[in-house]
Amino acid sequence: MKISEFKTVLAAQETISFQLPDGSLVPSHFHVTEVGKVIKHFIDCGGTERLETVINFQLWEANDYDHRLHPEKLVSIIDLSQNKLGLPDAEIEVEYQAGTIGKYGIDFNGTSFLLTNKLTDCLAKDACGIPQEKPKLKLIDVQTDAQNSCAPGSGCC
Fold first, then answer.
1. Which residue has the higher pLDDT, 155 or 39?
2. CA dihedral (67, 71, 73, 75) positive or negative
3. CA dist 114 → 46, 117, 118, 130, 144 (Å)
4. Which helix (H) or strand (E) holds 9?
5. Is the distance from CB of 38 to CB of 53 less than 8 angstroms?
6. Which member of 67, 87, 90, 115 lies 3.0 to 4.6 Å from 82 by CB, making a disulfide possible if both were Cys?
7. Helical H runs in 86-148?
8. Is the whole-model pTM more than 0.90?
């Protein structure tokens, strides 16, 4: 989800909730401790130089159980970040502390913002020697050549 879409959805909400991939909710007393622009400049395993930019939100919870971040306050934090940091309309990545800092994508289900699992991937599969996965066929779908098949009385055995 890009930041423009996030702000549009957020502006229509009365409360904010984030749901983790396992279905549990981030405690409602969370804080957004960072809104930033993360630029990743790297070379993939095939030697291609790449530049990626994401908008980073860091969610954090403390013993501040009376704290509730309201949508209009988060919109103002995002607006300030856009003005001060020149944030592009890029995809959002959310950091949240679990066993270690987890990085998540974000989606919306009509009620909650969903923190979605992010996966690593090879960006240069054609250059790094990983064989392409062969299509899986069901044996029942495999057509046999009648001339090369061995049927009773065919004289093949």
1. 39
2. positive
3. 33, 10, 12, 32, 48
4. helix 3-11
5. yes
6. 87
7. none
8. no
